[in-house]
Design goal:
Strand order of the largest sheet: 9-7-8-6-2-10-11-1-12-13
CATH superfamily: Vaccinia Virus protein VP39
Number of strands: 13
Strand content: 25-35%
Largest sheet: 10 strands, mixed
CATH topology: Rossmann fold
Radius of gyration: 21 Å
Oligomer: single chain
Number of domains: 1
CATH architecture: 3-Layer(aba) Sandwich
Length: about 300
Amino acid sequence: MGRIIYGDNLEVLQSLETESVDLIYIDPPFNTGKRQTRTRIRTIRDDRNGDRTGFQGRRYRTIKLSTSGYDDRFDDYLGFLEPRMLEAHRVLRSDGSFFLHVDYREVHYCKVMLDGIFGRASFLNEIIWAYDYGARSKSRWSAKHDNILWYAKNPDEYTFNFDEMDRIPYMAPGLVGKEKAARGKTPTDVWWHTIVAPNSKEKTGYATQKPLGVLTRIVRVHSNPGDLLLDFFAGSGTLGEAAGRLGRDFILIDNNPQAIAVITHRLREYGPELINCEQVLERLEVDDGAPWQARLLEPRGSREL
């Protein structure tokens, strides 16, 4: 089930058939102007030289396992995105949906660009993913949300499985009665969901990993079993896991070797076809503490694109 492709996403998109994909979700770099990094560590008990204090005052020494990341800087961000968005529109089925996950720095520019590609009538929602974690600013309101723009290729015909929508608790359950409170309410366009916690089993160690819960909601509501889903900025492969769990096919594309390794290890139980990935995985430096180490991946198949 599914394909993992290592390569330039524009070139791969150009090779896909027109109107062949049912749902596209992408989480491209946000153009923050900073280097996005994720460091993996391990701690061992060391009462003499420990640099951390744990439960009951026990001392632990930190061992750095690996650091991965990328430079999130683009001089012409829209010039980088636009040809890829045009290809995304081409490969999307007539009743398909497109989701762009971005942040407050670029969302308004991206919306104007997408209005020009999909048409303003195709814009259906701006979903706000709100979370409450991390440092707080003392000079402005702390930014604790991302923006997800939803476009339907045909605004009069698209997949929206209302009955598959998960329910969330009422904030004031005493005002709605026991039956409604027990059933919960449907989400709005503001989604409260924590980020992937540092100690979560879901954590892959990949910078900018997005929560499985957010992607699962999109996949459930906006696609059907057997549909083909596409993420051409695949990162840690969260869309692929949501697709695999829910019986959808997927294509994941990335040009970062560490992303390919994370995705392959994460999705190995679904037996994806690996395209242009084998040599990448063999070249990766083996690190005993990293979840993406090459010798654990055991790719099940590889062919040239």
